[in-house]
Write a structure and sequence with these properties.
This protein has about 425 residues and is α/β, with parallel strands linked by helices. The protein has two domains: about 5-300, Mur-like, catalytic domain (UDP-N-acetylmuramoyl-L-alanine:D-glutamate ligase), CATH 3.40.1190; about 305-430, Mur ligase, C-terminal domain (Protein-Tyrosine Phosphatase, Chain A, Alpha-Beta Complex), CATH 3.90.190.20. The chain has helices spanning about 5-15, 15-20, 30-40, 55-70, 100-115, 120-135, 170-175, 180-185, 205-215, 220-225, 260-280, 285-295, 295-300, 325-335, 355, 380-390, 400-410, 420-430, and strands at about 45-50, 75-80, 90, 95, 140-145, 160-165, 195, 220, 225-235, 235-245, 250-255, 305-310, 315, 340-345, 365-370, 395, 415-420. The longest helix has 18 residues, at about 100-115. It is globular. The two termini are about 25 Å apart. Mean pLDDT is about 95; it is low at about 20-25.
């Protein structure tokens, strides 16, 4: 098979959550464990940092990976979903896995993957483990796909686990309350392996602490390690003043990622990096930390996090797609100066719109659309649901049409926001 045929096999022959939704979700670690045994357990050949959470896990994973790269370690990074290119999911020192490596992996293991009935995500995680081992990666940052306890990535034994936060998401699969979802995410906690919790919350802390106690693992609350005293926007990013609690030491940090919500992510990443330096075999200098955060997006090619894609009118996209993430986006929209706001939005069918739509600003003009995905909610249905919550506007059949319409309507002093679904952002950025 060539690369195009290989991708067709991966997306069509193997069930993918991104294209089929919950019907493609295969809980349990038996298949991925059997497949990794078949390959010689490549995931055991390098240190790992395991990152779960409702929101922020992508940004946190990329920041940590960038700092590790800056510290001189050959660093793997496994994330999902991708925006434009499947290979975005698997990177070493910021470089995507070569196309030929994807082809070779599928050619070699095609029959075994079919025999075991692997899901798309299980196959992708195994491909990452194999590529990292072959490439002499020293440490890899591994982001969970969905949940934690039954996620395919959970066969790793990391040197630290990270839970960024917990919000209501995938309630049909993970549970309908914060404690239930927290318990699923806390399933990544391994025996005697500490866990860093990015955002403490009395509603779900007990569930995480219970899992940690059962595993005799220490819980590190990031907000007790670092405080953010100042946050200022700057060109191509923002600047923070952090202070480490144990010695009152200040850190002047720059981050090449916009969005007020990065305040939470930088604290989570900083506490994790501090732990890695103090408590594991890794050595991360202050300079590596400072330079790694300054070039986090550049080093890792991170896209879609409150990303400015045009000026006059200011045009921003963000991949936040659940109630927890949309709440952050709504805050940011309110804080961003503009005359009139135009929102190009689309969602997938299984999103809990009853909790998401009320969070969006009512004074905006909406252009409801649908991405080119089988999971996309038709624009007319989205518009009807949105009207219930006072969101008014018009529809466009495709994302390019919606974006063109927004640009037609918006004056230079206005703002265009693009989001709701990763698919919408991906098509807009193309």
């Amino acid at each position: 098979m060539n690369y195009t045929q290989t991708l067709e096999f991966l997306f069509q022959a193997l069930p993918a959550y991104e294209t089929k939704g919950a019907t493609a979700y295969k809980p349990g670690l038996e298949r991925i464990a059997a497949f990794c045994r078949h390959m010689g357990n490549p995931q055991r050949n390098f240190f790992t940092v395991h990152v779960a959470g409702t929101n922020g896990k992508g940004s946190v994973s990329h920041i940590i990976a960038s700092v590790l790269q800056q510290a001189g370690y050959r660093t793997g990074l496994f994330t999902s979903p991708h925006l434009a290119d499947f290979r975005e999911r698997i990177r070493i020192d910021g470089e995507m896995i070569p196309k030929q490596k994807v082809v070779n992996f599928v050619d070699k293991h095609h029959d075994k993957m079919v025999e075991l009935g692997l899901s798309f995500f299980e196959m992708t995680a195994a491909m990452a483990f194999d590529f990292f081992a072959q490439s002499d990666v020293e440490v890899a940052v591994i982001e969970t796909g969905l949940g934690g306890r039954l996620d395919a990535t959970n066969i790793i034994v990391p040197i630290v686990s990270v839970i960024t936060n917990v919000g209501l998401e995938h309630t049909d699969l993970l549970g309908d309350t914060l404690p239930k979802i927290a318990a699923e995410k806390a399933g990544i906690i391994k025996k005697s392996i500490p866990v860093v919790v990015g955002e403490s919350d009395v509603r779900y802390n007990p569930a995480i602490e219970q899992a940690a106690t059962a595993n005799k693992s220490k819980v590190v609350y990031a907000e007790e390690v670092f405080a953010c005293e100042e946050q200022h926007p700057k060109e191509n990013g923002q600047q923070f003043r952090l202070r480490r609690a144990r010695d009152n030491r200040p850190y002047e940090i720059e981050l090449d990622l916009a969005g007020d919500y990065q305040r939470r992510n930088i604290i989570t990443a900083a506490a994790t990096i501090d732990f890695l330096h103090e408590e594991t075999p890794l050595t991360i200098s202050r300079r590596a930390f400072v330079e790694g955060t300054r070039h986090a997006a550049a080093n890792t090619s991170l896209l879609g996090r409150w990303q400015r894609i045009a000026d006059a009118p200011l045009t921003v996209c963000d991949t936040g797609h659940n109630a927890h993430g949309i709440a952050y986006v709504a805050e940011q929209l309110q804080a961003t100066p503009h005359a009139k706001l135009y929102c190009v939005v689309g969602f997938v069918r299984d999103k809990d719109l009853a909790h998401i739509l009320p969070l969006l600003p009512r004074d905006a003009h909406y252009i409801f659309t649908a991405a080119q995905s089988h999971r996309a909610l038709p624009a007319a249905e989205l518009a009807a649901k949105a009207a219930i919550y006072g969101l008014q506007g018009e529809t466009a059949n495709t994302v390019p049409e919606a974006l063109a319409r927004a640009r037609e309507l918006a004056a230079p002093e206005d703002m265009i926001f693009i989001g709701g679904s990763t698919y919408v952002v991906a098509e807009a950025m193309e």
